[in-house]
Amino acid sequence: MTPSSGAPQAPARPHLIHAHFHLLVTMVLFGTAFTGSKAVVGQMPHQTAAAFRFGGGALVLLVVLAVTRRASRERPAFSWREAVRAGLVGLVGVFGYNVFFFWGLALAPSVDGTILVPVLSPVLTTAVLLVTRQERASAARVAGLGLGLAGAAIFLLGADDGTGLDGSRLTGDLVFLAGSACWAVYSIASKKLLGGMDHVRATAYGTCAGAVALILLAVPSMASLRWSDVPTGTWLTLACLAVGPTAVAYVFYYRGLGSVGPSTATMLMFTVPVFGVASSVLVLGESFTPLQDIGTVVLLAGAVVAVTDGRVPWARRRSATVPVPVDDR
Membrane-spanning residues where (predicted)? Predict the structure, then answer.
């Protein structure tokens, strides 16, 4: 995209198509990751599972980075400034998010995570953008945020089996909420990080920083793990998680964010529950409570209204009276 001295130019249509394709592949990988990760935490402590997944993912990304640098004629010098910036974002999106992600999976069914994390993240992302005035507030967006939060509350009530916070499922769902907040911050911070930085390097640096923190956190649980009791299938699942939903997905997510805004990118997270719920139901036999079904519908409706401002995307593009948010250009 060529810089202009005037108003920001919209990316070319093929560029946007590629960006949305990368983000959609990311959402497919993210959705199936809930099922695979749930299976893994059933065989080892959640801290250890997170460390192996992202430790392996970091190694894959370093190999990819080395290969792409060798194949490229331009070999940018290592920059500590870029590494620190990417590392700080990685500590939020890799370390922070996955601490809550795997902890929640150890307590609650994966189907709960597939709803709360990808659907609530756009709501929280939009809320932060409105509070910081990076996007404009409107009655539709405020109503959507309120509806989304109400849906989340109904969903949590459906997870309560009468034991309150002592109940494993409700506690796990609250942990998933913390993970959603981390992902919202990560999406916004990643957009700022991408200015002039190669997406593979940004992903590799951020994942390495988060993986190191996850490994340090997992040292005590690794010491108590009976390695011989871990099935071969669990190691194969971890390998698949390290390559697909970790290395490939994070590279694609960064690449997509380079062309679209964080609210647009996180809106595509509405497709994650489709893949996540389907795989969790078919592979793990999980299900929702009736009240959680209601909460899901309310949460999804509120999220869509909050992110789209109550308008379908093509209508917003045609309207000359509706300003396009800066981060969606």
Answer: 21-41, 47-67, 88-108, 114-132, 139-158, 170-190, 202-223, 235-253, 265-285, 291-308
Q: What is the pLDDT of residue 117?
A: 87
For the chain, which residues make up each domain, given as ranges?
41-328
Angle, in degrees to the nearest 10, between helices 13-41 and 272-279: 30
Let me know if 71 is exposed, middle or buried by CB neighbors in 10 A (0-12, 13-18, 19+).
exposed
- The end-to-end CA distance of the chain, in Å, is 12
Longest CA–CA span in the chain (Å) reads 65
Distance CA 311, CA 315 (A): 6
Digit-coded pLDDT (tens) for 106-129: 999 999 998 888 888 878 888 888
Higher pLDDT, 164 or 143: 143
Q: Is residue 315's pLDDT more than 80?
A: no
Q: Which helix (H) or strand (E) holds 5?
A: none
Distance CA(183)–CA(201), nearest Å, equals 20
DSSP symbols for 100-113? HHHHHHHHS-HHHH
Spatial contact of 88 and 27, defined as CB atoms under 8 Å apart: no
Tokens of 278: 């389907």
pLDDT-based confidence at residue 166 (cuts at 50, 70, 90): low
User: Which residue carries 């396009």 as its tokens?
Assistant: 324
